[in-house]
Specification:
The complex is a heterodimer. Chain A is mostly beta strands. Chain A has no helices and twelve strands. In chain B, strands 2, 4, 5, 8, 9 and 10 form a six-stranded mixed β-sheet that branches. A four-stranded antiparallel β-sheet of chain B has the order 1-3-7-6, with no helix packed on it. In chain B, a hairpin with a 5-residue loop joins β6 and β7. The relative contact order of chain B is 0.33. Classes of the chains: A mainly beta, B mainly beta.
Chain lengths: ~110, ~120
C-alpha cells in the first residue's frame, strides 16, 4: 500500500525566507514522487517530479526537492520565498501510474 | 494548445438527484484520471482510464458512482442519488499514458464544484 503524509497543513514564512514543505511517503516498491501546486482559483500544476534519476530534482519557480530513501521523504524547498508562492502544495506518490496517492496538502502563506 | 476542460464549473443539486460531470482531456492523451477533493482533504483517486484497457475503478466510493470514456476522449462521471457527503470538487486529469508507469505529468482541469443540498 502507498500513502503520503504532509506534515503541517499550514505553513507561514516571511518573504525572502526559506520555504520547507515536508512530505513523507510509504511504498513497498521504488516510487515516483510529485509535487503539485494549486494557486487560488486555478487548477493543479506540476512543480517537479522524481522518477528514479537524480535524487535532487529541480522544478519551476526555483523550487527543488530531494528524494531520501532512508528517510522515505521528498521535502520541497525554496531558498527565498516570494509573495507569488502563496498557494496550496500537494505531494503525490505512485508506483504503477494507475493510482496516485495525494497528501492532504499544505497551505503556504508568505508574509510581506 | 487547449488544456483539460471540465463542465460545468459549478453544480448545485438536491439530495437524491443524479448528476453528470464532463471532462475533455488534452488531445492525444490516452490516460485520464478522476479525483475528488473534499474540503480540508487531499485528492482522492476515483478512476483511471488508459486507452482501450478496462478502467481501474478501485477508487470509486460506492456503486452510485460510475464513469465512462467514449471514443478514448471525453469522459463523464455520473453520481446517482446524490448525498450531501458527495459535495466536493471533482477534478479530471490527463496524461500521454505512454509509459504506463507513472512517470508522466498529469495535466489537471479546473474542476467541477458540486454542492448537494
Amino acid at each position: 500500500a502507498q500513502s503520503v503524509t504532509q506534515l503541517g497543513s499550514h505553513v507561514s514564512v516571511s518573504e525572502g525566507a526559506l520555504v520547507l514543505l515536508r512530505c513523507n511517503y510509504s511504498s513497498s516498491v521504488p516510487p515516483y514522487l510529485f509535487w503539485y501546486v494549486q494557486y487560488p482559483n486555478q487548477g493543479l500544476q506540476l512543480l517537479l517530479k522524481y522518477t528514479s534519476a537524480a535524487t535532487l530534482v529541480k522544478g519551476i519557480n526555483g523550487f527543488e526537492a530531494e528524494f531520501k530513501k532512508s528517510e522515505t521523504s521528498f521535502h520541497l524547498t525554496k531558498p527565498s520565498a516570494h509573495m507569488s508562492d502563496a498557494a496550496e502544495y500537494f505531494c503525490a506518490v505512485t508506483n504503477t501510474g494507475n493510482q496516485f496517492y495525494f497528501g492532504t496538502g499544505t497551505s503556504l502563506t508568505v508574509i510581506p | 494548445g487547449a488544456g483539460v476542460s471540465q463542465s460545468p464549473s459549478n453544480k448545485v443539486t438536491e439530495k437524491g438527484k443524479d448528476v453528470e460531470l464532463r471532462c475533455d482531456p488534452i488531445s492525444g492523451h490516452t490516460a485520464l484520471y478522476w479525483y475528488r477533493q473534499s474540503l480540508g482533504q487531499g485528492l482522492e483517486f476515483l478512476i483511471y482510464f488508459q486507452g482501450n484497457s478496462a478502467p481501474d475503478k478501485s477508487g470509486l466510493p460506492s456503486d452510485r458512482f460510475s464513469a465512462e470514456r467514449t471514443g478514448g476522449s471525453v469522459s463523464t462521471l455520473t453520481i446517482q442519488r446524490t448525498q450531501q457527503e458527495d459535495s466536493a470538487v471533482y477534478l479530471c486529469a490527463s496524461s500521454f499514458g505512454i509509459s504506463g508507469r507513472g512517470q508522466e505529468t498529469q495535466y489537471f482541469g479546473p474542476g467541477t464544484r458540486l454542492l448537494v443540498l
